[in-house]
Fold this protein.
Amino acid sequence: MLTWKRHRRRLLLLTFVASAGCAEPIRVAGLQDSKSLASATRNTGDRRPPLTVITREGDAQGAVAVAVTTDGVATDRGAMVGVALAALVQERLAGKGIEAVAVGGWSGWRLGALVGSPAQAALIIDAIRWAMLTPLSAHEPALTAVARKASALASRPLANRALVEIARCTGEPYGQGDDPPPSVAELESWRSASHGLGRIAIATAGSEPLADATARGLAQSEPWPAARASRPPAWPADDASTVVYDGSGELAPGGARIIVTARTKTAQRAVAAAGVLGNPEGPLASRLQSLEAPGHLRSVTATAHVDGGCLAATIDLSSRDLSSDPPGKIATAAALARQELLVQMTDVAAPADLGRILSTRASDPREAAERAAWWGLAGDYAQAAGVDLHVNLTVAVAASRDASDPSARTFTASVRTEIDRATLGFRAPVVQARTRVERGQGEVWILIGTPCGTLPEGPSDAGAGAAIALAAAAQASRAAGDAQVEPFTAVDGIGVLVHGPAHRGESPEGHARRLADVAARAFAADALQANHISQARTTLLLGASRADAQTLAGLANALWPAHPSWFDANGTPFGLATVSDETLALRAAAIRAGPLRVAVVSNVDRPQADAAVRAVDRWIARRPGESRVCPPTSTLAPPRSGTYALDRAAAAPSEALIAVPLPSGDAAARAAATWLAAALGGPSGLLARALEPSAPDAATPPPLSWSASVIGSPRAQALVVRVTAIDAALDGAVAQVRALVDRIRQGALGDEDYVRARAAVASTDLTASLDPRARAVELWRDEPRPSPPSLDAWREFAASALHDDALVILAARPGVDPAGRLSSHDGK
């Protein structure tokens, strides 16, 4: 095993470490084609080790490196085998005046040396062969160095025997607490078993003449002996029982540490996934931070082994965050981390020659050669079929300061039980999914939102959901690239809508997952940032200051003062100005804990849509036994009919809204009202005939504009006629609308009106069906299309609903109070 950390000279090939806010992710996507890499493998002849060559210029000197695997040799001695053999060879070379650095680890060792000339390269190769193949004697001078390194290893023991498999995964050189130095016979048996063909690889980094000289040196040397066949011990079974041990002394009292390991036969897969998983702004770190007890991603380590790759992610939980229900919170973080490792290691695309790519990227020629040598051993498994992942959990828990607590004796068992429950919980989908395939479309559309809509809102926070949708969309846009992110704000749903085309070379599933990650991360996982919340609230307040918005908000307050945003999702100026940024952040967290629904309109096939749903679902934190339901709602008091007045800015025209409240939850009434709005509107509709003067020289000018629509949620819905006019003409226009409503109530609707309404509704439906955005919203709602009312049913609705004493009329006129305060003239 070799892992690469930021500091050189470690016996490791690739490690990503994120700690203390300092991280440097390894980028794999977009690597150059392997054909352009200046590296090659040379055959040095029968019974000689192969030579990997990294051709590079500019270094003052080149380098030669050797890598050796000790897997399967004295496995009970752990890292002692690799550390002792590295010390032996380094000291032997030092005795010949060759300065080299050898470092050992859990299942191997590697050595690198600078080379000043081709002639020196041949001498170093001969010296390395001698240092590795010469049998030991009882008076070997190098034994002193071996004993010194063995003592140093013993002084660096594993904190617990439970960590043996973790050390084997990462390759870290830890002792096992009671490691005696190897005897001469023991060391010799390790040397003869490890230093031979099949277990060694050699590499150079530098000029072509350097590589030529090294290759000739190997070809002209005596044949190398064959080593004992490498048979690495079997890894733990997939999902073996979670290991929980006492981490007191290792962790702060009451804290916990979770280590998730994932093994695969393809080393490149583990190494490539490290960059995504270890990114401090990536999915794993982000999802952990969104938990009730936030997890801190301490490190992500990926290691190439001769039998595949291993990745270990270490997560810390603070005692402060575990003050209540620590088993449940530890289990949630562990199950989440396990799921994310499985997702990323399954989905990651890793080039088969990733080892060569990383070797050429090393800044120091010794490191380049060492990486190339080790990948020469690990590369045999590059083409392993399938993902073949094996994931295990290890948890350290530190006893709280109150060690007398009797529950501490059962804590370990509780953690295991909760992890089993949480793991099952993360396997079961949480998000409510609606999918549809529209082959050949240019984009994939994904809408995620809460079906609770504006239900939790009252007068003091009306518009909170709209602010959350705007803030989440703005936050998602930062990482959206060429994808488009839009807020979804409606009385029955708050969320974000993401859509975009596929990237060149991107698979359909990868395309869908990318968009799903953008949508779900911002809305379902990441805490909203304060600047985005403030910006969203400011944007909504500016919109609420418009004259038409003030009038609609005034009508919402007149109809349903206890829940104005059930009628208008954008809220009211009072609600938006009253709710604090802190309250909005808490509301966003409550939304994430409640029911969430996703609609996916894919453009290729069903697996693409399913990939998007799975991607969204994994971002949703969950705990065993939780209930995701919308908050209970109070019964709305019926609206008080009457006329209300609203002052508006002096420059704005006068406006009136005439509302007919509809029965709460009555879908048939809503459908009939929608048809009536269609009959009222339009250039030849009932409103046009009632409001346009029959003679061009009429004394009273006609209104400036008029319209009709159905507004609000099923719980708080109304048919609303809007009339805009100069102030002198407004009262007359309202009187004409009231007279029209009364005529309709008395049976004025005829066949011609019915045909015109049907055509208008069909035109509206057609326009919506041609808009992928509208189709995504319709899919998200997943509501049955209402049956068109018959003419008789339409007339019956008008007769029962359009009573004059049911009307709520709001007249907005230029006045002295531009803030738009509502007052009642004859409200009952």
In short: The chain has four domains: 14-220, 243-362+373-427, 432-618, 642-824. Residues 14-220 form a domain with the Cytochrome Bc1 Complex; Chain A, domain 1 fold (CATH 3.30.830.10).
